[in-house]
Write a structure and sequence with these properties.
The protein is built from nine helices and eight strands. It is an alpha/beta fold and 272 residues long. It is globular, with a radius of gyration of 17 Å.
Length: 272
């Protein structure tokens, strides 16, 4: 298996304000733990940015130099800067860098994804064979779909747009996400789901329901398995997430599971 979504950091309380007191279990440093993941059948991962700076991108690239466990990096660059092509040209020297992400879920402007400057920056990625990770919340799904409809490059929806499992009703999310059926250039990550449920009382059936929707919308050719480690730890152990994920895909064929577990990630991020 390949983990399409993992984070690493030197914990900094001033920088990492999103890691709140109730997430104390991840208020620590996290580095590649090859032994832990290989014991779970996960051979490698994609390292994804968690803070918005070029320093973050370089930090992850340095980790990848030190650890073969990291097969690719999704970094951060200011996609709205005028000289975006120059910055992408600079980063093109790093073979492990596969794409970029902007934390759109934190943007308060409902029109952010339709901004001409931002869209220009995302379009610029294609010429450098970079992918784009789309991180949005359920209320941003309509804008996210319009955004993706205006592009033809490789995009992956992180965490299935974070369905509101804890609220007890995913009906609106289920309805809104259907539009991705027609967007073949958009994939999605089955990751970060138990953290969208009640951290202390989530049930496997809630997660199974969400993954069933993902399979219906994206099919087995456009889904990527991910752990969202270490964030997943706020709602359970790594084993808990892997177990509920595996129960959700148990009815698929071995070939279909292999696509989601490994092959789709290799293809999307152009891993060697």
């Amino acid at each position: 298996m390949i983990d399409s979504h993992q984070h690493f950091w030197n914990y900094d309380a001033e920088r990492d304000t999103w890691i709140t007191a109730d997430m104390a279990v991840i208020q620590n440093d996290f580095y590649p733990n090859e032994t832990l993941f290989k014991s779970k059948g996960i051979e490698s991962c994609i390292a994804v940015q968690a803070s918005s700076s070029e320093e973050e991108t370089l930090f992850l690239l340095a980790l990848a130099e030190q650890s073969d466990f990291i097969q690719g990096v999704v970094g951060w660059v200011d996609l709205q800067q005028a000289n975006i092509e120059d910055r992408l040209s600079y980063f093109s020297q790093f073979e492990t860098l596969k794409g970029f992400r902007h934390i759109v879920q934190g943007e308060k402007d409902p029109e952010f994804l339709q901004g001409i400057v931002f869209k220009r920056g995302v379009r610029a990625l294609e010429a450098f064979d970079y992918t784009y990770d789309l991180l949005i919340l359920p209320h941003q799904l309509a804008a996210g779909i319009t955004f993706c409809q205006g592009l033809e490059q490789k995009i992956v929806l992180d965490h299935l747009a974070k369905p509101p499992i804890k609220s007890g009703s995913i009906q609106q999310w289920k309805q809104d996400i259907q539009a991705f059926k027609e967007l073949d250039h958009v994939s999605a990550k089955i990751s970060g789901l138990i953290t969208e449920a009640d951290w202390n009382s989530w049930k496997p059936s809630q997660i199974n329901e969400v993954i069933d929707v993902a399979l219906e919308v994206f099919g087995t050719d456009r889904l990527l398995f991910g752990t969202d480690y270490p964030v997943v730890k706020v709602a359970g152990e790594l084993d808990d997430w892997i177990a509920v994920y595996q129960s959700s895909v148990a009815a698929l064929s071995e070939n279909e599971r292999a696509k989601i577990n490994e092959h789709n990630c290799k293809n999307f991020y152009a891993l060697d």
